[in-house]
Amino acid sequence: QKEVEQNSGPLSVPEGAIASLNCTYSDRVSQSFFWYRQYSGKSPELIMSIYSNGDKEDGRFTAQLNKASQYVSLLIRDSQPSDSATYLCAVLGSNYKLTFGKGTLLTVNP
Amino acid sequence: ETGVTQTPRHLVMGMTNKKSLKCEQHLGHNAMYWYKQSAKKPLELMFVYNFKEQTENNSVPSRFSPECPNSSHLFLHLHTLQPEDSALYLCASSQDSTDSGNTIYFGEGSWLTVV
Question: Is the predicted pLDDT of residue A101 greater than 60, yes or no?
Fold first, then answer.
């Protein structure tokens, strides 16, 4: 059973702070990793993908991947109240199936 | 507008009813998916179609029946459902389900309530 683990939260940060979201996965052969954002009552929206070790930056978002540790994270700089949502980590495993974590609820307080 | 359109957005049905969920993608993709999202549980993959062929049935009960007439359309036929089947059903598409760089895009979802 391929697993993706996330801290369910809630993670609460003040506006302007850095929010750090973490994810671990069990399938060592996984090659592709994704972060989705899901607002309450809405569908998941892709915000970042990462395929190789290291950091990938896109605006206020930075994804970090460490395949040796089977760990992927998402940093959100200068957090805004509009960033309040559930963040889903998803991992494409060796069987080409995308496995999702349960998600971390982030609340950014004004 | 996500490029993946689902109808209806909300559906309430009795346990003896038969209904269908519809999904259409306008992204030129070849793979389509049904996912189920229940409260406090991860997104669960139900079915995968790649180039109109079903490639994945994730041990889904037979009261859920998918249909994929072409690469742009996907249906989920529902009959004799149970209250525990109440959930958000998400359709998604991607270029090719066998591609390691596969990125999946979701529709807005259909909220299903079984009474």
Answer: yes
Contact A4, A27 (CB under 8 A): no
CA A100, CA B35: separation in Å to the nearest integer? 11
CB contacts, 8 Å: A92 with chain B: 100, 102
Q: Which residues of B34-48 are buried (b: 16+ CB within 10 A; e: fewer)?
A: bbbbeeeebbbbbbb
Residue-wise pLDDT tens digits, A15-61: 999 999 999 999 888 889 999 999 998 899 999 999 999 999 999 99
pLDDT attached to residue B38: 92
**Tell me, what DSSP letter sits at residue B96?**
-
Q: Are the beta carbons of B100 and A100 separated by less than 8 Å?
A: no
Cβ(B79)–Cβ(B63) under 8 Å? yes
